[in-house]
Design brief:
The chain is mostly helical and 232 residues long. The chain has helices at 3-12, 22-36, 39-46, 49-58, 64-77, 81-88, 93-104, 112-122, 126-137, 145-153, 166-173, 177-183, 190-194, 203-217. The radius of gyration is 19 Å and the shape is elongated.
């Protein structure tokens, strides 16, 4: 990135803050959304932890349109492994995950689809998936695997979002041993609840569920693997 553009980005930094005036921080985050849509732009943002921190900060802003743009920016950044690392290494990563996991299962959350997409992108990286699973099954989690599965399986749960990207998010989590144990727990009947979505109209949801089943089926050490899964 040219020195001129880098200078412009630094000039915008004071406005990339929750304490900035509404119109100014909206214009600043809007600019960074555009920047995150290019390879060079993502490389530049990822090379400056302060930008990533500020974008995460705005994802919890009190102005909805600012939050929407910040989430869009994070979705773009998380599309690359470097972006996932930048986000997860941020000092605000824990706060971000708590907020996103809490809101994605909130009925009536208008940003739930974008949040589910962010979780799906972040969890592609094994280390990030492990960290998310630890948070979900740890003490006092912001939400639980049970809640995520329940919300994904309850069609029409959120009238303002389709939540299809919860399926690939859960599929990414199934690469983690403790998550697979949860999915294969006979007492929870999770697999049985997921099976109907193998024929869902949404490619995203259908393929996500298929990947969960594939990951669980190839976990040969799992003695609780239901026999009926071998038919797939």
């Amino acid at each position: 990135m040219s020195g001129g553009k880098a200078g412009v980005n630094m000039e915008l930094l004071p406005f990339l803050s929750s304490s900035a005036r509404h119109d100014l921080k909206f214009l600043a985050i809007k600019y960074f959304v555009g920047l995150s849509g290019t390879v060079d732009g993502r490389l530049f943002i990822n090379s400056k932890p302060v930008y990533v921190d500020r974008i995460i900060e705005l994802a919890s802003d009190n102005v909805t349109d600012v939050v929407c743009e910040a989430i869009s920016c994070l979705v773009n950044l998380a599309g690359d492994p470097n972006g996932v690392n930048s986000i997860m290494n941020s000092q605000l990563a824990g706060q971000l995950l708590d907020s996103v996991l809490s809101n994605v299962v909130m009925k009536g959350c208008a940003l739930a689809d974008a949040l589910a997409m962010l979780l799906s992108n972040l969890s592609r990286e094994a280390s990030a998936a492990e960290r998310i699973v630890d948070k979900l099954i740890g003490a006092d989690p912001p939400t639980t695997l049970d809640q995520l599965v329940q919300v994904m399986c309850l069609v029409g749960f959120n009238q303002m979002a389709e939540l299809h990207f919860l399926a690939p998010f859960l599929a990414n989590l199934s690469q983690v041993t403790s998550a697979r144990k949860y999915f294969m727990d006979k007492q929870r009947c999770v697999i049985q609840r997921l099976l109907p979505f193998m024929k869902h109209k949404s490619d995203v949801r259908r393929q996500g569920v298929s990947m969960i089943l594939k990951n669980c089926c190839f976990d040969y050490g799992n003695a609780n693997l239901p026999k009926n899964l071998y038919f797939f």
